[in-house]
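Example for tutorial group B:
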C-alpha cells in the first residue's frame, strides 16, 4: 500500500499468498460447511418427527382423507426446510462479511405488513393444523360448534364444512371454532319413555316391553347391547312412565328411539286388547 492508502499490485499478491489469509478463508469455509451440515441434520430430525406423527395418525380413529394428511405433512416439511435454509443463507452471508442489518430490517417491515393484513388467514390455518393433528374431529363425525350442528364433510386448512341433517351446508372458518362437541367418539344412548295408562296392568306392560325390546335387539344392527327396562320413571294421576335405555352405534339413537317407540306401542295395544277381552279392570 502506498502513501495515498491505495493498494499496489504486489500488495494483492502478498495478501493472496499470505498464510493468515488462507487460514482465515479456511476457517470461514469450515464454519460454512458446519452450518450447512447442522441445517441438514435439523431438517432431517424435523422430517422424522413429522413422519412419526403421520404414522400415529394412521393408527387412530381419524377418518380424514389420507391424501389430505400427506399433503399437509408435505406442506409442513416445505415450510420447515424453507425456514431452515433461509436461516442458513443468512448465516453464510454473515460469515462472508455481508451486512445483514438492512436486509433484516426490510424483511421485518414486510413481514409485519403481511402479518397485519393476513392475521385472520394465519389464525384459520394454524387452527386447522391443530384440529387435524389433535384429532378433535374427523370427516364423517357429527359435531356442534356454536350454533351449528351437523356432519363434517370437509376439513380444510382454512374452513370446515358441516352439513346439517336438514340439508344446509355451513362453511365455518377454523379460527372461529373455539369449542367443539363431538357426538361420534362413543356409542350413543337411546332413552325411551313409555306412558302406560292406569287401565293397563303395569307388570304385564313391563313384561311385554322386555319381550319387545329383546326381539328388536336381535333384529337391529344399530343396537350394540340389549336395551334395559329401568322401571317406572314417574307416576301420574292417570298413567305411569316406564323408561328404557338402549346403547347403540354412534348417532343412531334417534332411529333406535323411533323404532322402539313404534314396536312398544304395538305391544301395548296387544296387552290392552287382551285385557279388554278378559274383562280385567285395573
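The residue assignment follows.
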Amino acid at each position: 500500500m502506498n502513501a495515498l492508502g491505495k493498494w499496489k499490485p504486489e500488495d494483492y499478491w502478498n495478501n493472496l499468498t499470505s498464510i493468515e489469509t488462507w487460514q482465515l478463508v479456511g476457517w470461514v469455509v469450515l464454519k460454512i460447511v458446519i452450518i450447512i451440515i447442522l441445517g441438514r441434520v435439523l431438517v432431517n430430525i424435523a422430517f422424522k418427527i413429522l413422519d412419526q406423527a403421520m404414522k400415529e395418525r394412521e393408527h387412530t380413529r381419524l377418518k380424514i382423507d389420507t391424501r389430505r394428511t400427506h399433503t399437509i405433512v408435505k406442506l409442513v416439511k416445505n415450510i420447515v426446510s424453507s425456514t431452515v435454509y433461509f436461516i442458513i443463507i443468512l448465516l453464510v452471508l454473515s460469515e462472508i462479511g455481508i451486512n445483514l442489518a438492512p436486509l433484516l430490517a426490510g424483511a421485518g417491515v414486510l413481514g409485519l405488513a403481511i402479518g397485519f393484513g393476513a392475521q385472520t388467514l394465519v389464525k384459520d390455518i394454524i387452527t386447522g393444523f391443530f384440529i387435524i393433528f389433535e384429532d378433535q374431529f374427523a370427516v364423517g363425525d357429527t359435531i356442534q360448534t356454536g350454533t351449528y350442528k351437523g356432519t363434517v364433510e370437509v376439513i380444510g386448512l382454512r374452513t370446515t364444512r358441516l352439513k346439517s341433517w336438514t340439508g344446509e351446508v355451513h362453511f365455518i372458518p377454523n379460527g372461529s371454532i373455539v369449542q367443539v362437541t363431538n357426538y361420534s367418539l362413543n356409542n350413543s344412548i337411546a332413552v325411551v319413555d313409555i306412558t302406560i295408562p292406569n287401565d293397563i296392568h303395569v307388570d304385564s306392560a313391563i313384561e311385554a316391553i322386555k319381550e319387545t325390546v329383546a326381539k328388536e335387539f336381535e333384529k337391529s344392527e344399530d343396537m350394540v347391547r340389549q336395551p334395559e327396562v329401568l322401571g317406572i320413571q314417574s307416576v301420574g294421576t292417570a298413567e305411569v312412565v316406564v323408561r328404557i335405555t338402549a346403547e347403540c352405534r354412534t348417532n343412531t339413537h334417534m332411529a333406535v328411539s323411533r323404532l322402539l317407540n313404534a314396536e312398544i306401542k304395538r305391544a301395548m295395544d296387544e296387552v290392552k286388547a287382551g285385557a279388554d277381552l278378559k274383562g280385567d279392570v285395573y
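The first strand starts at residue 142 and ends at 145. Compare this with the pattern of hydrophobic and polar residues in the output above.
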